[in-house]
Amino acid sequence: MSKRNLIASAVVGALALGSSAVVSADTLNDLHLEESKIHVAAANSQEKINNLYEQSQELFAEYRAVVDETENLKVYNDYVATLVADQQRSVDSLQRQIDGIEGVKRGVVPLMFRMIDSLEKFIDLDIPINLEERKDRVERLRDIMGNSNVTTSEQFRQVIEAYQIENQYGRGIRSYKGTIDVKGTDITVDFFNLGRTALIALSLDQKNAWVWDNDARAWQVLGDEYLSSVVTAVRMANKLVPADLIKLPIKAAE
């Protein structure tokens, strides 16, 4: 081959190699560019995945909180249901009691009337301690029994209270002022009662004394031998002198 041909071949080969190198460099650049795009896309995808994970964790935490609250509400609702059931039992019990009140009243009201009648008879037969006060109390009881504004429970309370007061008359000693009828004349006296054992009247001038005879239902004149003792008894009851032994006309029990 001639030198010219060799040179030409060399030039052509060099051009070919240069063209091949240019093509290879462009391909690599494209590859690097695509790889960069892939990395960017991967980073974006990872960021989205991270965001979704965080959101899923928040939703899971919210879900657990809702589940816990639901469980607490269920326990509380069961507790409230128990309270409601207990309250309903109480309401049912009260309703049964209310329903039975009328029946109780039908039994109690006649009983109270009988108690008032018995109390009145007892006062008439008893020694006349505070007689007017006791008779007035019975009349008040009859008045409240006819008063629609007074409840049955209050009526019963006052009847029982009257019995308690009557019971107190049989204990201790008392002195109070009043009047007695002596042969048609009202005389103001100091009464002295030793329970229901004795009821004695002393004139205000302390010169005369009488004792109540419950069998005769009348006042009997006391002898002078009892007069000083009766004076002392009245003073003792009024707490003017200390308690001491005294001589009184006590009727023996049969």
Notes on the structure:
- The structure is a single chain.
- Mean pLDDT is 84; it is low at 14-23.
- With 254 residues, the chain is α+β, with helices and mostly antiparallel strands.
- Strand 2 and strand 3 form a beta hairpin.
- The chain is 65% helix and 14% strand.
- The N and C termini lie far apart (182 Å).
- The chain has four helices and five strands.
- Strands 1-2-3-4-5 form a five-stranded antiparallel sheet, with helices on one face.
- It has helices at residues 3-125, 131-145, 152-168, 227-237, and strands at residues 173-182, 185-194, 198-203, 209-213, 218-221.
> Strand-and-helix sequence, N→C?
HHHEEEEEH
What is the average per-residue confidence, as pLDDT, rounded to a whole number?
84
Largest sheet, if any?
A: 5 strands, antiparallel
**Strand elements, count:** 5
The DSSP helix count reads: 4
Low-confidence stretches: 14-23
Helix content: 55-70%
List the helices and strands and how they pair.
Elements: H1 3-125, H2 131-145, H3 152-168, E1 173-182, E2 185-194, E3 198-203, E4 209-213, E5 218-221, H4 227-237
Antiparallel strand pairs: 1-2, 2-3, 3-4, 4-5
Helix pairs in contact: 1-2, 1-3, 2-3
